[in-house]
């Protein structure tokens, strides 16, 4: 039974599984040393303070041990000496789709990017290995004062906006991988939304790894000024190479008073990518930060989006869907740090484990002393499809004081044989019945994604299956 | 009644100087003890010396105040003076007419009432090792400690000199509980209480352990309870921890269940400066049920730390856990639990609930409820809540003429009742209930 169903509940991976020959002008070579960092700084023409920042980070990275005291031992299979840390063709991002090099264009064409941009996006940035290949913002949006550019340009052109928050939400020493990112970061989006501007359509970034034995280290910083709103979406793919690839991003969000940020991720890396990402937002007074996160790909994902609720009545939310197939470990979760009165947070996480896949929820809820009226609600549900599927839940909840309420609930279940039998008896095939059950399990979360994505998600979780009742 | 109070107490001059518990190897008595036992003790001492103390980055000690686990000040416990022994025995009051009763002071037997009926054996461990050596060998500390206290577990084994052995014959149903009173006395003294309960097939027994201090001096206790239920057996174990507020306590409880066996453990944590309990339940045979309950009422600077693991390694097993904490003042509680459903343990039902009632702005409740599921057709859930009393409930009681303070006491006490009621033995429930009430009363007086 289990061998039949290993492939039964699967997603369409074929779409991202292709690659073009490399034609890099700049290649930092294999391994990581101070030289690598200098090389990146030289190529990117970094200001001195950025170069210093990188070097300090490199030291922190080297000093910090792997967090295997709590995380999976699989981390030890990453060989940092066999990874290339910077690859680019040395060209500036193109504003027009026609100027994008042919193979890159074909890459994103095949992934449907220009099509989506025309349809519903306010701005797009497409990153190919280390640098952005294409970047465009609708004129109406840039006229409102919205800045949407890659990290290097933003730090050079708008230091007064970005430097004060750069590395402040996630300090270099937060963890080993945030330090690694800080040392070699390249690409990623920097967004500033001015006071009161509500960006109607989502901004989108697309991340693509095209080269083997390469690490992508993009860095994203989104600052939304008082009363402004933005929705940002990112998608990730990579072809399946023989050797494993590393993706280690740092994403910082700053929601000033009354601002609202929604950050949507659909992660569909190929199943040999180590995806070790640090994501955190700060929500000031009355602000809201929402992480809407879907992890389908990668070999190992470790990602715990967090919200620091710094101002009164701030709100944090994490909505998370994870699908772990054979050979995959989705280690996802949420961090909710309450740092002001009357802050509320909500975490809803659903995971599906298929074949020998392993889904892990790791959460932290922290309510320190002398605060009043903080609330947290956490729900984690896991669905096991096969008898060899695995799921774990490790939340950590600290509450100080008697004026707060937290609740955490987790459950593990199966698609029951009775359920399937009932639907079959109504004329559905076994595969359809399974599909319906699984879709029903995540349905309320899929609705949280923008419409175009939720349709896509339902299609991704393509449940053509026979004999799959676990 | 066997009075052993006449045994000559060792002279205080012979006692070892302060702080020697962890530096001077214990003096093992080879007197008639099986060789396997003494060699395990010697190995354990070596293991204790070799193991490193808990470090800050050790997940098994997350949130714990490591300063509270420094053993440098303690020394081995010495025999009670005669007057103290008499006081301990006099104060060892449980419920009327237990089937057997044994009183220990710093691990020495002070008084013992042999069982009055057939089918049950209650003996000091040292004596039982001579008479039931082979049976004990099978079950004695058969599982290594895995929840962080490995070093202390080794120390327990190395320093063990007291302990109680309870064996129930196949098919014997013992209606009245067995009572054990463990006393700790003397400045910086330490005790290593050990209770081994082996219940034969289809037998039934209830055991109550009382842990108390003779004085309010600082001390250290490191105990082990092993509950082994053969097929169809039923064990109810109640532990009432009332060490003095300067005692640092560490306790290990392991339960093993055979086919269709039921083991229920209920811990009341009322005393100690810091109390850490590592409970492991191994749901073995099909149809077995393991239930773990814990109630901690923490005030002042008390730290109550509970680490649990429910391991299911066979199909068709059930386990349930309910841990409740009531927090006053600057108290801290930690609950870290894991349900582990191993490969092949299909049709497991496992539940875990932690509830924290936080009654002070300075109290801190930590919860780490965990699940690891590697099997199919499993029903598992865990829940954890932290919060204050409901204002609506207080309002309701006040509207009936009950003062706000009394209403809070009443509601907090009601919160505790759920654990006490799990004992399912009216007399014991009443006894435990009164202990909890006494603690509440003492706090009210402050």
Protein described:
- The complex is a heterodimer of chains A (470) and B (446).
- Helix content of chain A is 23%, strand content 35%.
- Chain A contains twelve helices and 24 strands.
- In chain A, strands 5, 6, 8, 9, 11, 12, 14, 16, 17, 19, 21 and 23 form a twelve-stranded mixed beta sheet that branches. A ten-stranded mixed beta sheet of chain A has the order 4-3-7-10-13-15-18-20-22-24.
- The longest helix of chain A has 17 residues.
- The N terminus of chain B is likely disordered.
- Chain B is 22% helix and 38% strand.
- Chain B has an eleven-stranded mixed beta sheet, with helices on one face. In chain B, strands 2, 5, 6, 8, 9, 11, 13, 15, 17, 19 and 21 form an eleven-stranded mixed beta sheet that branches.
- In chain B, helix 6 crosses helix 7 and helix 7 runs antiparallel to helix 8.
- Chain B contains eight helices and 22 strands.
- Chains A and B meet through strand 23 and strand 24 of A and strand 21 and strand 22 of B.
List the helices and strands and how they pair.
The complex is a heterodimer of chains A (470) and B (446).
Chain A: H1 2-6, E1 26-27, H2 34-44, H3 48-63, E2 87-88, H4 102-110, H5 113-120, E3 123-128, E4 131-137, H6 139-143, E5 147-150, H7 151-157, H8 159-162, H9 176-184, E6 189-193, E7 203-208, E8 215-216, E9 219-224, E10 229-237, E11 245-247, E12 250-255, E13 260-267, E14 273-283, E15 288-295, E16 300-303, E17 306-309, E18 315-324, E19 329-338, E20 344-353, E21 358-367, E22 375-384, E23 390-400, E24 405-414, H10 417-425, H11 430-446, H12 451-460
Helix pairs in contact in A: 2-3, 3-9, 10-11
Chain B: E1 2-3, H1 35-50, E2 75-76, H2 82-91, E3 100-105, E4 108-113, E5 120-124, H3 125-131, H4 133-139, H5 150-159, E6 164-168, E7 178-184, E8 189-191, E9 194-199, E10 204-213, E11 219-229, E12 234-242, E13 247-257, E14 262-269, E15 274-283, E16 289-298, E17 303-312, E18 318-327, E19 332-341, E20 349-358, E21 364-373, E22 379-387, H6 391-399, H7 404-421, H8 426-445
Parallel strand pairs in B: 2-8, 3-7, 6-9, 7-10, 8-11, 9-11, 10-12, 11-13, 12-14, 13-15, 14-16, 15-17, 16-18, 17-19, 18-20, 19-21, 20-22
Antiparallel strand pairs in B: 1-4, 3-4, 5-6
Helix pairs in contact in B: 1-5, 3-4, 6-7, 7-8
């Amino acid at each position: 039974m289990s061998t039949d169903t290993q492939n039964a509940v699967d997603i369409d991976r074929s779409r991202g599984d292709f690659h073009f020959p490399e034609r890099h002008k700049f290649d930092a070579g294999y391994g990581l040393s101070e030289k690598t960092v200098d090389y990146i700084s030289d190529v990117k023409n970094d200001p001195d303070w950025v170069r210093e920042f990188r070097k300090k980070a490199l030291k922190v990275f080297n000093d910090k041990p792997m967090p295997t005291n709590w995380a999976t031992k699989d981390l030890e299979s990453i060989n940092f000496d066999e990874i290339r840390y910077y690859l680019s063709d040395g060209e500036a991002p193109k504003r027009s789709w026609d100027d994008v090099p042919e193979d890159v264009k074909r890459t994103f064409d095949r992934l449907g990017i220009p099509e989506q941009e025309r349809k519903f996006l306010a701005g797009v940035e497409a990153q190919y290995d280390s640098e952005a290949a294409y970047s465009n913002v609708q004129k109406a949006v840039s006229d409102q004062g919205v800045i949407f550019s890659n990290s290097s340009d933003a730090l050079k052109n708008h230091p007064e906006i970005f430097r004060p928050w750069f590395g402040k939400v996630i300090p270099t020493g937060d963890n080993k991988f945030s330090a690694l990112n800080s040392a070699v970061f390249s690409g990623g989006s920097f967004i500033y939304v001015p006071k009161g501007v509500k960006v109607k359509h989502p901004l989108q970034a697309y991340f693509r790894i095209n080269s083997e034995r390469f690490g992508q280290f993009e860095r994203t910083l989104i600052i939304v000024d008082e009363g402004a709103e933005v929705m940002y979406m990112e998608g990730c793919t990579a072809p399946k190479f023989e050797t494993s690839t590393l993706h280690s991003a740092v994403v910082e969000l700053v929601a000033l008073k009354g601002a609202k940020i929604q950050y949507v991720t659909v992660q569909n890396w190929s199943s040999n990518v180590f995806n070790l990402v640090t994501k955190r937002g700060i929500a000031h007074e009355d602000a809201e930060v929402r992480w809407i996160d879907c992890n389908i790909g990668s070999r190992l994902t470790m990602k715990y989006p967090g919200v620091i609720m710094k101002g009164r009545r701030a709100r944090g939310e994490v909505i998370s869907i994870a699908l772990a197939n054979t050979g995959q470990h989705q280690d996802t979760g949420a961090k909710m740090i309450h740092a002001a009165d009357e802050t509320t947070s909500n975490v809803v996480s659903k995971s599906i484990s298929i074949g020998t896949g392993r889904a892990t929820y790791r959460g932290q809820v922290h309510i320190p002393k002398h605060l009043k009226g903080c609330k947290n609600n956490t729900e984690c549900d896991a669905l096991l499809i096969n008898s060899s599927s695995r799921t774990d839940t490790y939340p950590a909840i600290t509450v100080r004081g008697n004026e707060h309420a937290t609740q955490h609930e987790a459950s593990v279940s199966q698609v029951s044989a009775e359920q399937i039998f009932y639907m079959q008896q109504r004329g559905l095939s076994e595969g359809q019945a399974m599909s319906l059950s699984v879709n029903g399990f995540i349905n309320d979360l899929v609705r949280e994604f923008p419409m175009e994505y939720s349709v896509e998600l339902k299609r991704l979780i393509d449940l053509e299956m026979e004999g799959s009742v676990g | 009644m066997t009075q052993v109070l006449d045994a000559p107490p060792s002279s205080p001059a012979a006692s070892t100087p302060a702080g020697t518990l962890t530096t001077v190897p214990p003096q093992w008595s080879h007197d008639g003890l099986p060789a396997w036992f003494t060699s395990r003790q010697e190995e354990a001492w070596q293991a204790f010396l070799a193991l490193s103390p808990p470090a800050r980055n050790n997940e098994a000690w997350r949130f714990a105040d490591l300063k509270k686990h420094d053993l440098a000040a303690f020394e081995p416990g010495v025999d009670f003076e005669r007057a103290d022994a008499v006081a301990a025995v006099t104060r060892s009051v449980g419920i009327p007419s237990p089937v057997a009763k044994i009183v220990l002071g710093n691990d020495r037997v002070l008084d013992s009432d042999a069982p009055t009926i057939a089918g049950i054996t209650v003996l000091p461990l040292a004596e039982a090792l001579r008479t039931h050596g082979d049976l004990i060998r099978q079950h004695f500390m058969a599982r290594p400690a895995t929840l962080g206290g490995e070093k202390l577990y080794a120390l327990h084994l190395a320093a063990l000199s007291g302990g109680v052995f309870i064996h129930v014959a196949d098919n014997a149903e013992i209606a009245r509980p067995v009572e054990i009173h463990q006393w700790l006395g003397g400045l910086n003294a330490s005790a290593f209480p050990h209770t081994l309960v082996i219940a034969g097939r289809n037998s039934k027994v209830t055991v109550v352990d009382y842990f108390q201090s003779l004085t309010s001096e600082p001390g250290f206790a490191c105990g082990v309870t092993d509950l082994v239920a053969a097929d169809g057996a039923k064990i109810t174990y109640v532990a009432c921890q009332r060490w003095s507020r300067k005692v640092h306590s560490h306790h290990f409880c392991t339960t093993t269940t055979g086919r269709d066996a039921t083991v229920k453990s209920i811990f009341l944590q009322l005393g100690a400066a810091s109390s850490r309990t590592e409970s492991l339940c191994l749901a073995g045979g099909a149809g077995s049920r393991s239930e773990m309950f814990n109630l901690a009422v923490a005030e002042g600077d008390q730290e109550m730390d509970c680490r649990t693991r429910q391991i299911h390694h066979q199909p068709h097993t059930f386990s349930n856990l309910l841990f409740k904490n009531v927090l006053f003042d600057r108290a801290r509680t930690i609950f870290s639990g894991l349900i582990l459903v191993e490969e092949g343990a299909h049709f497991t039902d496992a539940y875990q609930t932690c509830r924290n009632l936080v009654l002070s702005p300075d109290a801190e409740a930590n919860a780490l409820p965990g699940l690891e599921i590697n099997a199919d057709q499993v029903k598992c859930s865990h829940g954890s809540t932290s919060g204050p009393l409901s204002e609506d409930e207080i309002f309701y009681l006040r509207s009936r003429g009950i003062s706000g303070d009394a209403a809070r006491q009443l509601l907090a006490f009601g919160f505790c009742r759920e654990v006490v009621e799990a004992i399912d033995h009216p007399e014991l429930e009443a006894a435990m209930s009164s202990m909890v009430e006494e603690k509440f009363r003492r706090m009210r007086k402050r």
